[in-house]
Write a structure and sequence with these properties.
Helices cover 40% and strands 18% of the residues. It is α/β, with parallel strands linked by helices. Strands 3-2-1-9-10-11 form a six-stranded parallel beta sheet, with helices on both faces. A three-stranded antiparallel beta sheet has the order 5-4-8, with helices on one face.
Length: 276
């Protein structure tokens, strides 16, 4: 199928849909200025201290890092937390909201991103699944309790050159031990998933209500396939947007090559007369 045909098919699905299921990976945040950690090169460009120490993403994004190198682990995540707080979500989020506002059942988001940017952009909390958790919530690193709590009061001071936390390590209010982000890391058996489980239950109820939903998958890579697998397993037409890995089986959907904002702008330029 030619690119123009794939584009037209995507437009037809969007025009007919009564609900928009947005599935998003890290590529959704790149146009907001967030770093891309695909491969060691992406991580090491953003964090040269990790390159110097030859620490890969799978090693720093790992519960063991909090137990063995807590200042370094919190240097990495503390810097990311402040970056996510300071960064404004790009206008592609607003485009998706506008499309969904004209659909009977609106939008629901399923994302592996831990940046909290869908909520920051105005999507309702009860319409978001953060399947890997969020950096804006904390938990005990030892799981002394199943409680999770807001990171709003945490103001990390990070030596960016060394990628090390200089302020006190976040502590669990229950046991006084180390706190960690409530996110799913590599080889992580301690993540408290109850918040994400409740989000998924709400998504399942929404899915039972919609009749003609369409999936728009944005920036989901192959390194961690959670989002891509979820997209194609819903039995719905999928519009896959990706600058590189955009291919999808014809019976599952259509792929459009490009970055998130670029493709959303292209689609919006055609759909706008209907939504204006």
């Amino acid at each position: 199928m030619l690119e123009a045909q794939r584009f037209e098919r995507a437009l037809a699905w969007l025009r007919d849909a009564d609900g928009l299921l947005i599935t998003a990976g890290a590529g959704m945040g790149v146009d907001s200025g967030l770093p891309d950690f695909r491969g060691r090169a992406g991580l090491w460009r953003a964090y040269p201290a990790l390159k110097q120490a030859r620490i890969a993403f799978q090693a720093i994004a790992n519960p063991k890092a909090f137990h063995h190198l807590p200042a370094l682990a919190w240097g990495f995540y503390g810097h990311r937390l402040e970056l996510y707080r300071k960064t404004t979500p790009h206008r592609g989020y607003a485009i998706l909201q506008r499309w969904a506002s004209d659909m009977t059942h609106g939008a629901f988001v399923f994302t592996s991103n831990v940046d909290g940017h869908f909520a920051k952009a105005g999507f309702p909390d009860d319409r978001i699944v953060e399947c890997h958790g969020t950096l804006h919530m904390l938990q005990c690193a030892r799981v002394c309790t199943m409680d999770i709590w807001s990171a709003d009061s945490l103001v990390p001071i990070v030596d960016e050159k060394a990628c090390r936390l200089r302020s006190p390590l976040p502590a669990c209010a229950n046991c006084g031990g180390l706190a960690r982000p409530n996110i799913l890391m590599f080889n992580d058996w301690d993540w408290i998933s109850e918040r994400a489980d409740r989000q998924i239950a709400r998504l399942e109820r929404w899915m039972r209500a919609v009749k003609r939903a369409v999936v728009i998958e944005i920036g989901a890579g192959r390194a961690v396939t959670t989002v891509r697998n979820f997209s194609v397993h819903q039995g719905l037409p999928v519009i896959r947007i990706n600058p590189q890995d955009f291919a999808i089986a014809p019976h599952e959907g259509v792929g459009i090559q490009g970055r998130a904002l670029e493709v959303l702008d292209r689609l919006d330029a055609v759909l706008t007369p209907r939504y204006s």
